Amino acid sequence: MNVEAYLVPLAPELILLIGACLALIVGVIKTPRQMQWVSPLALVVVLAALLATWRLGVPDGSQGPPGLWLTSLTFYTRCIALGVGLLIVLVNWHQPVAEERGEYMAMILFSLLGVLLTASANDLLVLFFAIELVSVPTYVLIALSREDSRASEAAVKYFFLGAMSAAILAYGLSFLYGAAGTTTLYAFDEGAAVSKLAFGAQMGSHALIGLLLVFVGLAFKVAAVPLHVYAADVYEGAASPVTGLLGFVPKFAGFVALVKIFGACNWELPNTVYWMLWVVAAATMTAGNVLALLQKNVKRILAYSSIAHTGYMLIGLLVGPVAGQGPMRDGVAALFFYVAVYGAMNLGAFALFAAFRTGGRPMETLDDLAGIAARAPLSALALAICVFSLMGLPPTAGFLGKLYIFSSAFSLDESHAFCGPLIVLAVIGVVNSAIGAAYYLRIVAAAYMRGEVDESIPTGGRPVRWGLALCSIPMIVLFAWPGGLANQARNATIVLHDSIRPVHARLTTTTDATEHQQQPAAFRPHQAPRRGAPGKPAAP
Amino acid sequence: MFARAKARGSGGLSAQAKACGSFRIAILLVLTGMVLLAPTGSVAWATDDAVTAEQQIGVTGAAPPGGLLEPILFYAVAMTTVIAALGVCIAKNIVRMAVWLFIALGSVAMLYFLLAADFLGAIQLIVYVGGTLILLIFGVMLTSKSPWVRFEPPKLELIGAAVVCGALLVALCVVLYSAVWPETEGVVPGVSVADLGRRLLTTYLVPFEVAGVLLMIVMVGAAHLARQEK
Amino acid sequence: MSIETLKICGIVILLAPLAGAVLAGALGPVKLHGRSHWPAILGVAAAFIAAIVLFGQVRSAPAGETAAAVSVYEWITNGTDAAFTVDFLIDPLTAIMLLTVTGISLLVVIYSRDYMREHGSPLRGYERFFAFLALFVFSMCALVLSGNFLLLYLGWEAVGLCSYLLIGFYYGRPAAAAAAKKAFLVNRVGDFGFGLGILLIYFTFGTLEYGLVFQMVQEGMTGVGDALTNGRITTIALLLLCGACGKSAQLPLHVWLPDAMEGPSPVSALIHAATMVTAGVYMIARCGAIFTASPIAMTAVAIVGGITALFAATIALAQTDMKRILAYSTISQLGYMVLGVGVYAADSAIFHLFTHAFFKALLFLAAGSVMHAMGGIIDIRQFGGLRKILPWTFLTFMAGSLALAGFPLLSGFFSKDEIIHHALTVHPVLGVLGLVTALLTAFYTFRMVFLAFYGPQRVPEGVHPHESGKWMLVPLVILSIGAIGAGYVNIEATGRSFHHFLAPVFEHTFAAASPAHAAAHGVAATAHAGFWTEYGLMIISGGLAIVGILAAYILYMRQDWLPGLIRASAPRSYRTLWNKYYFDEVYDAGVVEPARQTAHVCVGLDDYLIDGLLWLVTAIVRGIGLLLRPFQSGMLQGYALSMVAGIAIIVLLVFWA
After folding, report:
1. Half-sphere exposure of C585 (CA within 13 A, CB side)
2. ipTM (interface predicted TM)
3. Does A276 contact C at CB distance below 8 Å?
4. Whether residue B72 is found in the same domain as residue B140
5. Do C257 and C322 share a domain, yes or no?
């Protein structure tokens, strides 16, 4: 029992924890001078955690305390959660004008901590607590975000419904525990584990109901139909920067947890579950887009669009991992890529609303956006980039995200029992993207086409605009160089394939899986001088 | 069922003097249960109701019934739990709800005793029955302005809720009866408090710590929300 | 030559103008305003320097290693499969094209600094102009540097876009807007064929990399290993030719170029004379392997070029707008280049492209200078005798005109002569057409010179002519030096001539396939067999040029009643020429009008049928939304209830489905 072996691999988590506690302490001191240092403190903490992540590299799965399993999935989650977390801190820089900023920033850090723990959890209990650690701070954040009865109302609503979903999740986990006789998710030796249950058609009905309830409980976190109903009210009630956070943090944690649970099942689900997921994904996309069309409040539009994006991501979840293939074929890698991109672009869209006020109140409706392009051309451009990315237009990363998700469904092996329906689902997704373009274009049109109606006064200050820039620029950069993120997403799913057969001891992650790759060789008789061969390319 | 309970949670408030009667009955019930169950010791039963993640701290399996007393006790306590939980949902006055909740929590404690998880049962009594619930009732009494307001949901909503919850209940019951549960041979030894403590600091260190952090967040959050309302 | 240096040069050539464009476009309206030309000038200058370095690298490379494929960027979509690559193909052809493009661009950008101050468009014209111009340089360099057809196509379309934007620069003027639209649409016709050609290449060979495609063509096999049929390769070549016709304004897609003169003069000089319009010629030269594999396509190329050359020259005889005359002469000279490629003399065609870039850019810029002095008037009937008022402009214009006319020992003389020489050996009829065109060229060029610069001094009313400033004159002077001397880079005696430099590019394509080459295999003496014919031809064509100039002198200086008499004696021919062979009218009646009628029908269908359907779809969507709305009541209990109902449905669905 070596303390070092426990603590060092968890450095990013510990840094976040300590940083959050520091922020709380600063919050108690509460003089205006000290409050100024809270946001930089949070920024430094997230940066330090990122640095620690980078220094630790990809964990090989052999370290860390019991109950956690640190893998490439952990690494990916750490990078993405902390990376987007950095942007979240920037966008929330000035957020609660009141003196609660210490607690506020602490809550953001705690929430990020929950995401990191979700990715490493190897125990149903840890998983449950981690998910709650993601959610509980968000309830507080919503209430703290602004002094407004609507924020309190949103917080209360979110809290009660969240508590209900937590109960459902716990109930489902208890079934899994009852079926497996242990809370361990993946076992590395002869011990019992959830991953050693019989799945597929042989799945026991107690495990099945457990799986269903866990899915439903997590569906609340990712805002999937039928547990999406809260999204619009809560998103609207919270201040814009928090809404940007709400679109990413619970969703990311929820999907990571879903991937872990489905991975434990080896994606061997009874056909009825596949069909259920199919219906949920289709309904989520369609309901999100259709309801968004009817809205005038931009935050509500984006809330419903967030539901629609959950639907697209569910396609990736349904496709499941494909060993060693990039996100083009691997549904989970595509999902991971998408959720990372979504976090940034969604936050960027909300960051603009954090940066400007109109007529003495925060910007909210399409009319408020009028004339922003003339007043703040760069901010409007950043908004346009983020919105185009949400729409899935090239040249933005959102396009690639959608491309990966849909192509993973299309390139599914024909022997896969669910090949046909998934293609239909991808087609529904494409149609839905087209519907989505309608309301996204309305946002851009409001920003660019309408004349100056109201005065929008920048309030967010420099860090918020930095946040906005850092949300939008990567959208373009990632479009041009998606390789890094795509490879990391691919590596993150490798652990899923290996963990399914955990016969031997803890596994190591493959950092390079190119040997799995197979190129379609039909069209290339002259493989040799493909490119870069100096000499006589033009006229041989 | 719990869904209904949560739905009620946001409802109105009132207190009635009559509640005192229910109180007495409830306290009596709980005390009797404790007296009866404390010495029965280490008989464990698998149950399909009220399973929570906490349970696994107590025991990890099920044993065949050891006599007639245990089944009778189990069914009695389980019925009490169910009825009390229903009572929480159906009651129209918040103090009554609290009392029903008190009974429900107490019977869950008894279930723990029946499962030979003495420590957990005691904790359940001290924390929930003794602490949380009393706090709840104090809170109601201190903040309620008009204690006689009754909380009555629209009929339509009530019927809808009943239908939906009924359907879910039926579905769950059917699924659970068709399930084949893993069974452990022999009698599972009771877990000592020392053992529990050791496990909390070794195998379950991470969940233990995370739970601690979670509670701290809840506390900070609750304090701030309460302060904001002023 | 090191790959790394080439890579850096290529990237600088691409990115420096792009950065200039972005800076001028983004900062221009905000900060730079009147200094917006600096990003463009600096960007293009950086590109020019990089092009010089690159040229030096290629030039110093040992024989046999003058070409390099440089992979720059891969758009990874799946870890290993690259869906889109940016790779440069750098060889002597690329180096020369880059030098020409960046060099002329630099001069034109410098010239524009003064010119655009007075001719700017009201709406942020100055910034917009330089942003577009730099963007054009970027696109053109991408087109030239590309090592695959996809990037070539992207560059091709991007230069088209820039051309559209710049022709329509004065979009307040209906003529400019119409001209821009026309240029874009006519180019679309060509590009459609070009795009089909590239698709066919992909379907045939399974790749778009130049190296692989050309190799397979020469091995006569397709991507899956089948034999490559003659029909297939001819189809590809003709489709590519279609694209070249659009971009290089060859018959019958030439109609857009004269109208394109509605754009600012520097644009005409750079895009519609020196660089973009030569993209078609460049493309045919680059795809020599494909074209030479199909004799039919080569003949088609030669015929299109030869006829266009003569045809455009005849139209130029009757025009009075200075820039339009120059535009037709550009079409005619492009015809020469295409003819040159078509008669297997790609090196001569590129040589002509090179010299033409100098003198034609010079002529347009000088015409711009005239226009600048005349307050925007460019009709040669309205002014005359400008020789005294605009001495520098006159001298430089004269140098350009002499070069264009093919006056002996000036640049145009050498390059044009070579093409005619090759044409006479391969297709004698087309060669004769070329000779006639040479005569006409000299005539119409000097008709313009004499009318504008000689004779009694006449200026339009209310105009106070003045010589242009230094920013405009310096590029003119540099260009006239090029126009006079550019021909001498091809002097055989130095041993490092233009052709020698280009030879490795074409040795397996045009040079190997040419009939002269085939004949030469029989007789030992090759090129020098025609020593006397070559020099004889030089004398003939030089003589024709002088005859043309003299004819113009007689008609417009001495016997100035003669033109009127000619006009009166052959009114029909004159009207035909004046109306440019009625091409626009025929297209109007045959293409534009039917299209417009169809469009009206489509609008009707769209208004009633499609809109109706659309309304129906949105109504359905909205209806669904309205149905779902009650569930979004905002009441907590309602939410909880609907969530539990959803869970119940899910459980029931899974267990009883």
Report:
1. 6
2. 0.83
3. yes
4. yes
5. yes
